[in-house]
Design a protein that fits this description.
The chain is an alpha/beta fold. Helices cover 34% and strands 25% of the residues. Helix 1 packs parallel to helix 4. The two termini are 32 Å apart. Bound molecules: S-adenosylmethionine (SAM).
C-alpha cells in the first residue's frame, strides 16, 4: 500500500467520529444525496437506473449514500480503507434495519480503492464516489481500477472539488480566495491534513479515455437558492460557489471494449 494511503487511513480512523458529528445532518440514509450542497440524486441525475443494479461505492465513509441506494433497490458493495469509518457504516446499516424491519443490501468491505484485486473484473453496473476515493485516492490508480470493475456500458459517477476551486485554495488558509495561488498545470497530489488529489480538466479527460471511459456529463453544481451555509461551507464560501464552480460531478461510462495493457482501447 502506498505511504499516502496509509497516511489517509490513519487520518480517517482518527477523524471518523468527529467528521460524522459535524456532517451527519447532510448525509441522510433515506434520500441518496450528494454532499457539498445536499443535492438529492433525483435532482442531479448522475447515477441513472438504481433498482436491481450492482453498485460499488469507492470510499464510502459511514456508507449513508450506499444505504440510501440499497433502500431504493440496489445491491451495494461499500469499500473504505478506514476500519473506524466501516464501524460507523455498520451503525448506519443497523439504523436502516430498525427502520425497515429488514437489512439493506449493503456489504461493507475494507480495502484500498487503488487496488481492489479482491474484486473480479466487470462485476458492477455502477461505481460511484462522493468525496471518497474520488478525492483521497490517486486518480491515476483508482480510475483504472473502477474501469476494470465495471461491466461494459457500466457507469462511473463521482464528485470532487473543481480544479478551479483548488487553484484558489491556499492550504494554509483552508478556504477559497479570489486569487489563483496554486499552479494549475501541476495539480495532482496535494498535502493538507490528509493527502488528496485533483487534476487539470484535460488530464481528467485523457485519463478517462485511456481507460475506455466515455464522458456522459460534467455537472458543475451550485448551492440551491436561499442556502446561506452548509455543514461543509461557510457563508462566504457559499457566495464564492455562486460565482465559480466549486464542485464537479463527472459521469462517464465504460465503452463496449477492452482496455489493452498499454491503456489503448481495443474493440471487444
Ligand atoms: C469524506 S469521507 C467519506 C465519503 C462519504 N461520501 C461522505 O461524504 O461522508 C472520505 C472517505 O474516503 C476514504 N478513503 C480515503 N482514501 C481511501 C482509499 N485509498 N481507499 C478507500 N477509501 C479511502 C476515507 O477513509 C473516508 O472514509
Amino acid at each position: 500500500m502506498s505511504t499516502d494511503a496509509t497516511l489517509n487511513e490513519n487520518w480517517w480512523d482518527a477523524y471518523a467520529t468527529a467528521y460524522l458529528a459535524e456532517h451527519d445532518s447532510q448525509l441522510p440514509i433515506d434520500v441518496p444525496t450528494w454532499s457539498l450542497w445536499a443535492l438529492p440524486e433525483a435532482e442531479v441525475g448522475a447515477l441513472g437506473e438504481i433498482e436491481g443494479r450492482d453498485v460499488l461505492e469507492l470510499g464510502c465513509g459511514a456508507a449513508q449514500f450506499s444505504v440510501a441506494l440499497a433502500r431504493a433497490g440496489a445491491r451495494c458493495t461499500a469499500v473504505d480503507i478506514s476500519a473506524e469509518q466501516l464501524a460507523l457504516a455498520e451503525h448506519m446499516i443497523d439504523r436502516a434495519t430498525e427502520l425497515d424491519g429488514e437489512r439493506p443490501d449493503v456489504t461493507p468491505i475494507q480495502g484500498n480503492v487503488e487496488d481492489l484485486s479482491q474484486l473480479p473484473d466487470a462485476s458492477f453496473d455502477l461505481a460511484f464516489s462522493d468525496y471518497g476515493a474520488s478525492m483521497f485516492a490517486d486518480p491515476l490508480r483508482w480510475v483504472p481500477e473502477a474501469a476494470r470493475l465495471l461491466r461494459p456500458g457500466g457507469r462511473l459517477a463521482f464528485s470532487q472539488i473543481t480544479p478551479m476551486l483548488e487553484v484558489c485554495w491556499p492550504v494554509e488558509i483552508g478556504v477559497a480566495t479570489n486569487e489563483m495561488v496554486k499552479d494549475y498545470f501541476r495539480l495532482h497530489r496535494i498535502e493538507d491534513r490528509a493527502v488528496y488529489y485533483n487534476l487539470p480538466y484535460g488530464e481528467w479527460v485523457r485519463l478517462f479515455r485511456r481507460n475506455g471511459l466515455r464522458i456522459v456529463d460534467l455537472i458543475e453544481t451550485r448551492p440551491p437558492e436561499g442556502v446561506k451555509t452548509t455543514a461543509y461551507r461557510s457563508a462566504n464560501q457559499v457566495e464564492w460557489s455562486r460565482r465559480w464552480p466549486a464542485e464537479m460531478i463527472w459521469v462517464v461510462e465504460r465503452e463496449d471494449s477492452e482496455v489493452g495493457a498499454n491503456g489503448a482501447v481495443v474493440p471487444a
